[in-house]
Design goal:
Elements lengths: L1 E5 L6 H7 L1 E4 L2 E4 L2 E4 L6 H7 L6 E3 L3 H10 L4 E5 L7 H12 L4 E5 L4 H14 L5 H11 L3 E6 L4 H6 L4 H9 L3 E6 L6 E7 L2 H14 L6 E7 L3 H14 L4 E6 L2 H7 L4 E7 L5
Parallel strand pairs: 1-2, 1-6, 6-7, 11-12
Antiparallel strand pairs: 3-4, 3-5, 8-9, 8-13, 9-10, 11-13
Length: 277
């Protein structure tokens, strides 16, 4: 079984090579130039380039997906960015249909970033021991308990992405509020979860929701940030205070993810771990 994953999975090129995972890159557009996530540009380079330009993103191209599929005519599982959050799943499914490819299965991760990372690593761990249907069943079992929260540093990037009206963004900025976004119940979109006066209060609100949802030491918690280590440390401390034995991993967000939340943004996610052999 071959594992293919969008760079939304936040595996570095070296990590992907070690796991024998084929990465298909998301794209970021800065000015007139298109870069492939991780392959052409890293997060540090991206931050420098967007100081004078507003970036845009695009899912992996159909051409790049087709190249990945045709490299090896072998049974493959392609884990894409969550459907509704991106067109990646539909694009990959379209490639399979148009080219009549019967050896690739496209799996909807229903998420991004840390959750995708966990699913990809799990699939890579299972691929040599289990068949496709068993792997998919176990991935779906993990997704029964998952949620993602996004805390942009301000309202500007939410306004640019169309997730807030300009009037609401101006009001929020004027009041110095910290927006909190979360996945909808159908996991098809990111919507308003709340607002807070400070980043400390925003993290506390998310941590309290983790407790309400029953998150414990059986879950993997991801704290991903766009060059906001202070916020990541604060989130780690608050969550560890509330959840004994919390399993937390910290990540630096990829360029395509920073495009949506902006520099300084913070993402908190969890997913049920698979601790079986």
């Amino acid at each position: 079984m071959r594992i293919i994953s969008d760079t939304t999975c936040h595996l570095s090129i070296a990590e992907a090579a070690e796991l024998n995972v084929r990465l298909v890159a998301n794209q970021v557009i800065i000015g007139e130039t298109t870069y492939k996530d991780y392959l052409d540009i890293d997060s540090s380079q991206f931050i420098e380039l967007i100081k004078d330009h507003h970036p845009r993103t695009s899912q992996p191209s159909a051409g790049d997906i087709l190249i990945a599929y045709e490299e090896e005519n072998t049974e493959s599982l392609h884990i894409t960015t969550g459907r509704g959050l991106s067109s990646a799943f539909d694009t990959a499914s379209g490639v399979i249909k148009s080219m009549d490819i019967d050896y690739v299965t496209v799996f909807d991760s229903q998420s991004v970033a840390g959750v995708n990372r966990y699913l990809t690593q799990l699939a890579a761990r299972l691929k040599d021991k289990y068949d496709r249907n068993t792997i998919i069943h176990r991935l779906n079992a993990c997704l029964k308990e998952t949620q993602s929260y996004v805390m942009p540093v301000n309202f500007e990037f939410l306004k640019r992405s169309g997730r807030l009206t300009p009037a609401a963004a101006i009001l929020g900025s004027f009041l110095h509020l910290k927006p909190i976004m979360a996945q909808s119940s159908d996991r098809q979109r990111i919507e308003r979860f709340g607002v807070a006066r400070t980043i400390h209060a925003a993290i506390k609100e998310v941590a309290n929701d983790l407790i309400k949802r029953g998150v414990n030491d059986k879950h993997r918690i991801y704290i991903a940030h766009a060059f906001n280590m202070d916020g990541a440390r604060l989130a780690t401390e608050q969550i560890k205070e509330k959840i004994q034995g919390a399993d937390i991993e910290t990540l630096l967000l990829a360029p395509a993810m920073i495009t949506h939340g902006g520099p300084g943004s913070l993402v908190i996610q969890y997913i049920l771990r698979d601790d079986q052999e």
